[in-house]
């Protein structure tokens, strides 16, 4: 959802605000634009299936006044806790994979942002966690222009490159991420074949 804010990395205005997590992420490139949103004037009301907190989000570095982010509503309870557990596990696994590929912290953070975006849109359901982590790392490699290929990541994760390619295409298409071509004929052909198979099924 666009909030009128532009991404300082890619210029996109497609910014996702997550009130529960208190951050703002660019859905085009995965960059975290704000991760220190805090709540002021919190009120609680009965939402029928748990307490809902209503408050105005302000930047932690603002001079006391609320910004124009508007009012947000989010759930407080076990759902938020279980998601935090999921994100912590993803961070651990993505970090391990990136270290094996000799990728720095920047790539770890970017891949984790893609995972969060997939989690918010419920794209992780019904898919193997290892495939999701690997796909997020591969999306990062493609958007950042590294030399890593699909087979490099599938070898490290010990998963089928074809299955990884399918998960990668599902995520990148669902998240509307602009993926530049790698220029590798074999790589592009493999992904094209997987894409054609997905269209026909």
Automatic annotation (TrEMBL):
Organism, by scientific name, is Glossina pallidipes (Tsetse fly)
Gene Ontology BP terms: transcription preinitiation complex assembly
- Asked whether the UniProt record includes Ribonucleoprotein among its keywords, one would answer no
Q: Which residues form the TFIIB-type domain?
A: 3-34
InterPro entries in the cross-refs: Cyclin-like_dom, Cyclin-like_sf, TFIIB, TFIIB_cyclin, Znf_TFIIB
The record's GO molecular-function terms, alphabetically, read:
RNA polymerase III general transcription initiation factor activity; RNA polymerase III type 3 promoter sequence-specific DNA binding; TBP-class protein binding; zinc ion binding
**Pfam families, from UniProt?**
TFIIB, Zn_Ribbon_TF
Q: Which UniProt keywords apply?
A: Metal-binding, Nucleus, Repeat, Transcription, Transcription regulation, Zinc, Zinc-finger
Q: Taxonomy-wise, where does this protein's organism fall, top ranks first? A: Eukaryota, Metazoa, Ecdysozoa, Arthropoda, Hexapoda
Question: Under the cellular component aspect of Gene Ontology, which terms does the record hold?
Answer: nucleus; transcription factor TFIIIB complex; transcription preinitiation complex
Q: Which domain of life is it from?
A: Eukaryota
Which SUPFAM superfamilies does this UniProt record tie to the protein? Answer: Cyclin-like, Zinc beta-ribbon
Report the CDD domains cross-referenced here.
CYCLIN_TFIIIB90_rpt1
Annotated localization: Nucleus
Protein name from the UniProt record: TFIIB-type domain-containing protein
The record's comment on protein family reads: Belongs to the TFIIB family.
């Amino acid at each position: 959802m666009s909030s009128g804010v532009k991404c300082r990395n890619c210029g996109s205005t497609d910014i996702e605000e997550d009130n529960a997590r208190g951050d703002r992420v660019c859905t085009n490139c995965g960059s975290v634009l704000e991760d220190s949103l805090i709540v002021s004037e919190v009120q609680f009301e009965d939402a029928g299936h748990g307490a809902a907190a209503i408050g105005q989000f302000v930047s932690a570095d603002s001079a006391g006044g609320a910004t124009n982010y508007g009012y947000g509503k989010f759930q407080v309870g076990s759902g938020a806790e279980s998601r935090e557990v999921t994100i912590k596990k993803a961070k651990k696994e993505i970090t391990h994979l990136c270290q094996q590929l000799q990728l720095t912290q920047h790539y770890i953070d970017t891949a984790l942002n893609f995972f969060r975006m997939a989690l918010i849109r419920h794209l992780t359901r019904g898919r193997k966690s290892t495939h999701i982590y690997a796909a997020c790392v591969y999306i990062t490699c493609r958007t950042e222009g590294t030399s890593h290929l699909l087979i490099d990541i599938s070898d490290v994760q010990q998963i089928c490159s074809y299955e990884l390619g399918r998960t990668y295409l599902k995520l990148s298409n669902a998240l509307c991420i602009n993926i530049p071509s790698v220029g590798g004929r074999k790589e592009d052909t493999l992904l094209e074949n997987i894409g054609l198979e997905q269209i026909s099924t």
